[in-house]
What we know:
Helix 14 runs parallel beside helix 17 (420-434), helix 19 (466-474) packs across helix 20 (480-500) and helix 20 (480-500) packs antiparallel against helix 25 (542-553). By secondary structure, this protein is mainly alpha-helical. Helix content is 50%, strand content 5%. Strands 1-4-3-2-5-6 form a six-stranded mixed β-sheet, with helices on both faces. Helix 13 links the parallel strand 5 (338-341) and strand 6 (362-364).
Amino acid sequence: xxxxxxxxxxxxxxxxxxxxxxxxxxxxxxxxxxxxxxxxxxxxxxxxxxxxxxxxxxxxxxxxxxxxxxxxxxxxxxxxxxxxxxxxxxxxxxxxxxxxxxxxxxxxxxxxxxxxxxxxxxxxxxxxxxxxxxxxxxxxxxxxxxxxxxxxxxxxxxxxxxxxxxxxxxxxxxxxxxxxxxxxxxxxxxxxxxxxxxxxxxxxxxxxxxxxxxxxxxxxxxxxxxxxxxxxxxxxxxxxxxxxxxxxxxxxxxxxxxxxxxxxxxxxxxxxxxxxxxxxxxxxxxxxxxxxxxxxxxxxxxxxxxxxxxxxxxxxxxxxxxxxxxxxxxxxxxxxxxxxxxxxxxxxxxxxxxxxxxxxxxxxxxxxxxxxxxxxxxxxxxxxxxxxxxxxxxxxxxxxxxxxxxxxxxxxxxxxxxxxxxxxxxxxxxxxxxxxxxxxxxxxxxxxxxxxxxxxxxxxxxxxxxxxxxxxxxxxxxxxxxxxxxxxxxxxxxxxxxxxxxxxxxxxxxxxxxxxxxxxxxxxxxxxxxxxxxxxxxxxxxxxxxxxxxxxxxxxxxxxxxxxxxxxxxxxxxxxxxxxxxxxxxxxxxxxxxxxxxxxxxxxxxxxxxxxxxxxxxxxxxxxxxxxxxxxxxxxxxxxxxxxxxxxxxxxxxxxxxxxxxxxxxxxxxxxxxxxxxxxxxxxxxxxxxxx
Length: 692
């Protein structure tokens, strides 16, 4: 037993000497640090000597290197000496604090283990249940296939591409004006408003006249070009477009090249874009698709354009070439070239909004699939049906602003248009077969595609009643205070989204805004509690939002604002909207309804144009007889208390207040006045016809 005791004591002696050496080193280092010049005048004085500066620089690099090695050893962020990745002393200090926390935590765990306390499992409060991993339908593929999830690729600190745009994004609360300045393939020349750059950029304050007169002149010039400003630049060309004979003939499908053997060129320079446009002008048809990002931009940004011909594929970096994309108008508006899209409703608007590019002669495969009644009209289904290709949708939720794009995202983008021309051939052949060799179905799809080309981008405009549209969609019932809070929050969100160029969903999602308006929190912390997770700009402007809630709480509390959802709901329709409704067919309905009501009211009025004695006399005109029949149709609940008509009543007793007959006569008269048919006359006595 002596050996073990000797061994333990020897081990303890070595440990004590090691810990003593470490403690001495730390103490000496602390003393050396205390002997350094103090911050302030003393340090500035020594700093003036070049030798001291060089010494500090060398020793500082040694210390940073040593600290970086320690951080790397403990698994912490170790780029403390990388000046390119840090913005200053504060970030280095944060790294040191973070590393100290990690190291001290490890020291604490080791000390607990040495004391016999196991910390393999963290101590949790009573009733705590660990979170479960939820697998939902959006990130799981069913069946017996291998599990495959979608990749939500995004960059946390990506530079906003809007900052590099030559033409700044216009988020103002004004209507969208087309960006086109040159009109290739024009049958009708472009309006002078678009060709005259000076006229387009002219502002009222630029005129050398008094401000009031400047506004007047600017309004006159604007009204002069009003029709041109908001019209479709290719309206005339599309209206006179005729489907080519080649589209009427049943095609022989041209098989596509294998994706791996097809060249795909990434275009991010002006020279490459010009070369691509020349290739497209020599083609008979080409396929187009766009990738769009809308979360970190108010109007959205088109980040990528994919184009495929029969021989090769192209991917255009539209963020880099945003101001030069108008060059493609030469090929996109050529009526002899077919542009193949799938579901082009949004693509047409994005091309106009971001690039000023328009499309003439398009074929939408989505409408072709609908005409064939395929059941499913998605591109995935068409690729599987005609190409036996399983579309890869793992990156459909990716952030397409990422640069450089990963290889897998480029491959995903290429596949969107690579097979589309072959699908276009197969759909045309099936449309011919479905129409027994005729071209009527193809012409129907072509006509619908042409209507899509005529679609114009409409900019979202904020009005005082804009919030009501969202309020009706949510199907909530708010009182006056809640509705006022919702209106203020909606206006704040729209204004901030336009100024910061962020989407309204990023500023404050709809469900969070409804929650805040419904709860009306009394404290700023309550607003944050309604948001999980809290949007960054909500946290920054929490005080302003709190003031909105306080302002809404000061409004008198009224009953809940009921919201009807029927087609004839006009409870929240403005006067201008009601005027517009009169032109949609409701005027005839209202006119006929009012006519019937007037006839009923006039008929009811007639029975009060004569005295009851005249009715008893039997000398009635035709109109009085009709009125009498109407009056008899009403059942008088007080008839049992009225005197019988067969009893002779003296006129003196009828007008003698002391008699019972007088009381019954007054009751009879008041009952007749309370009958429903007389309500209109009582409200407006002037409408009553004169007796006789």
